[in-house]
Design goal:
Elements lengths: L7 E5 L9 H16 L4 E6 L3 H6 L6 E5 L5 H16 L3 E5 L11 E5 L4 H4 L6 H17 L2 E4 L2 H11 L6 E3 L14 H12 L4 E5 L8 H10 L8 E5 L7 H9 L2 H4 L2 E4 L4 H10 L2 E4 L9 H7 L4 E4 L14 E2 L4 H14 L5 H11 L2 H11 L2
């Protein structure tokens, strides 16, 4: 039996105000499902005022908003959020990665630690980045009342790196939003992208720019195979999040005839981003490490042919085989992309879509969160 008490739950949603990323999708899609399944509970989403964010939740009358006053996250975690929890008498408070040091004994603290890749792949992160996050993430994982992560890979990492053996770690896998499973007219998307951006027949990669995201591998393979001579363009979309000198230097080194076939956008409006997905000829995800990795399953749900890395949490995406290779194997990656280019029409995209639909549902993850509110 679930509690019939009209619970009040606080959700720290400050990441919704940041650049697009998997954690942002997680908060937004997960709590739309949780709110729908628990209409007798009230959810208070802490954000900075933004109409676009608010509009995402308008259908859910039991989702309300608390607008943060202080820009400093440190101040919010030390003072503003503890005061909000005390004043509003919240029963639960859910955070991403880090919980406040000042905790209220009448409130249960939930933390989702999506990954601790900075420990496992230190060369991709600065010393200060690793030092600060390691301390805060470890503290939060140990001190929270409920610890959640998004993949079995991340769960095993938490157990190994933080020696968490006496606490149950729940898994709420990321999912695909319903919009990625809806029928659509590909030609309409192709026309929209061409009319607005003058780009047609392209290979797509959507992800933030960081050293581990490995955009430079895709650029090098694209040029090595001379895919532009087959009429292909390369489109990279993602905010420059952590400085990647290799990526920046590679872009600067391109000759004019190469550069005109490679398009990089830091930010794209949500409607256009969906059109870029739908209009893509092929989607490639060469990331070296992920706590989960949402973009390839979004592309697969749209029935776009996908070439995906098979490392870390992405090892769960075996349904992309045989186009499922190590990003550390340059020759293997080159061979796989060349093969996909020539055999993309032979893929059973319906089976891939159905597998993703069954395995990665926000409703399933919402049930895990709901089980906490017993």
């Amino acid at each position: 039996m679930f509690s019939k008490k009209p619970l009040k739950i606080f959700v720290d949603g400050y990441l919704l105000n940041k650049e697009p990323q998997g954690t942002q999708t997680y908060i937004r899609e997960l709590y739309k499902e949780v709110a729908k399944a628990n209409t007798n509970f009230t959810f208070y989403l802490g954000i900075f005022y933004n109409e676009e964010i608010i509009n995402h939740f308008l259908k859910h009358k039991n989702i309300k908003f608390i607008f943060f006053k202080h820009k400093s996250r440190l101040f919010r975690m030390i003072y503003e959020i503890p005061q909000l929890i005390k004043t509003n008498k919240f029963d639960f408070a859910h955070f991403q990665y880090v919980i406040p040091f000042v905790r209220n004994k009448n409130c249960k603290y939930i933390v989702t630690t999506h990954d601790i890749l900075f420990i496992e792949f230190p060369k991709h992160f600065s010393f200060l980045y690793r030092l600060r996050r390691n301390f805060l993430f470890r503290y939060s994982a140990v001190k929270s009342d409920f610890l959640i992560t998004v993949s079995n890979y991340s769960k095993q990492s938490l157990i190994k790196q933080y020696k968490i053996i006496n606490k149950k770690i729940l898994i709420t896998p990321n999912g695909v939003s319903n919009v990625f499973l809806e029928a659509y007219n590909k030609e309409d998307a192709v026309k929209h992208i061409y009319n607005k951006y003058k780009i047609k027949k392209y290979i797509l990669y959507i992800s933030r720019v960081e050293p581990r995201k490995n955009q430079e591998l895709l650029i090098k393979v694209f040029l090595k195979l001379k895919l532009y001579k087959l009429g292909y363009k390369l489109v990279l979309i993602g905010k420059n999040s952590i400085k990647n000198n290799d990526f920046e230097n590679l872009l600067k080194s391109l000759k004019d005839d190469q550069r005109k076939n490679i398009h990089y956008f830091e930010e794209i409006k949500q409607n256009d981003l969906m059109c870029f997905y739908r209009a893509a000829t092929i989607f490639v995800f060469p990331s070296k490490s992920e706590g989960f990795g949402i973009p390839p399953i979004e592309a697969g749900a749209l029935k776009i042919p996908v070439l995906c890395s098979n490392t870390t949490a992405m090892s769960d995406f075996e349904f992309f085989a045989p186009y499922f290779v190590s990003p550390n194997n340059y020759k293997g990656f080159e061979k796989a992309l060349n093969k996909l280019i020539n055999n993309k029409d032979q893929l059973n995209l319906d089976i891939i879509q159905q597998t993703i639909k069954e395995r990665y549902s926000w409703k399933n993850s919402a049930e895990v969160i709901t089980s906490i509110f017993k």
